[in-house]
Design brief:
By secondary structure, the chain is an all-alpha fold. It is 82% helix and 0% strand.
Length: 186
Amino acid sequence: MTDDTSTGGRNPEIERATSHPDAYSDRAYTWLSRNGLYVWAGISVVVIALAALAVPLLAFGSLAAIGGEGSILAGGAAIVLLCTALLLGLAVVLLSYAYLEVDRRGIPFVGDRSTRTLAYDSIRTMETVAAGTFTGGLVTMLGLAVSVGNVPTILSVTVLAAAIGLPVTVLVHAAGRFVLFVVDAS
């Protein structure tokens, strides 16, 4: 067994081990790279299905609440709270993965400039922006609601747009991965 340091060369395994000493983050990055998209797409489908159920419940429940029946509105609000919790979990995982990915691969759009790399970097950037906007906007909304008692409409619209855009971009990413799988298989 020869030692690369004695010949003056660099050992890439030693550099990798010393540049990322946290084995947990290496395992998390590897797992998320291989399986994360499937989990994210599943959560996105569940969130979209629940949101599609919540919208009519909220609309009908608000009309029923005028007449004194608030249980339908409460059910719709509970579904919206569940959607928000799922989206927040998805956003936190996507932001964590983006951090790990930048730590391992570097910043996006500086790779080999191939079409696949450009498409991947673009969709990951859109996912990260949507996740960051949703998470940051939600925290800001809660802070303003507690401290001032009022949330600006533009902030509410921005968080709602990010909440809609987050699962959509994840599903576009999953569809792109599926198309690449089909193209590579043929």
